[in-house]
UniProtKB/TrEMBL annotation:
Pfam families: 7tm_4. It is found in: Cell membrane. Odorant receptor. This is Olfactory receptor.
Amino acid sequence: MPNSSSLTQFLLLAFADRRELQLLHFWLFLAISLAALLANGLILSAVAWDHHLHTPMGFFLLNLSLTDLGSICTTVPKAMHNSLWDTRTISYHGCAAQVFLLVFFLGTEFSLLTIMCYDRYVAICKPLHYGTLLGSRACAHMAAAAWATGFLSALLHTANTFSLPLCQGNALGQFFCEIPHILKLSCSHSGYLREIGLIVVSACLMFGCFIFIVFSYVQIFRAVLRIPSQQGRHKAFSTCLPHLAVVSLFISTATFAHLKPLSISSPSLDLVVSVLYSVVPPALNPLIYSLRNQELKDAIRKMMTGCFFKKQ
């Protein structure tokens, strides 16, 4: 069996054996990635173009779109390449880069979603202190902390995972490089336990953020229900529900992907679930936000109308 020092490539899980299905997966992933690029690109442009969106929520939404673009560009291009050219390989260093970038973008995204929850909590429960608690300097510091947290987490997990000796072959049961599947190839018990410890620490931190989000939304909904006017309640809900939907989509798919019972685990189910948490959210998040955010919809409409008439 090869060890990690002699490994030059890994074998990823193929979507299908039949050529027709491989091409179908290529075109499907191409459509999803183009939709994600277009939708997130529109949000980035709208937030930068319209001064009405130069708010803390707009700033964090811009950062969220960057993480969505980063995560889908980390996994999908290689999967498309393999489906189109009927291959399964990824280089050792390419796999390490994929693990680092995916953990970096997903970790940063979860931190940003937690910060955006805090933004909604302050806006609704402590509106008089909003300008103080969420000024431009504070927002920049929180966003920098989110990116730094994602970077540090990715660095620790990647360095530890790819320092392990691998002696169980080079076939990964996933269409992209994922830490649990790489750990299955390890023959170092102590290194394996060290990485499991890092994963447990990360899971505890994420659980702490999840508890904070739940607690914040309990306080938010209590405050919203006390608003006397129906219009005021509708406006408050319209700013909170998109964020809650995105958080629910992110947590539910990622949790099920990594904590599903072994009794129902299978290569085909693992493949579907991994697509749901790594590919679908970056394409759906912009749609969720734009459907309920009237200011964002107006900004996108004005921007596109302005570009159209400028060409005329």
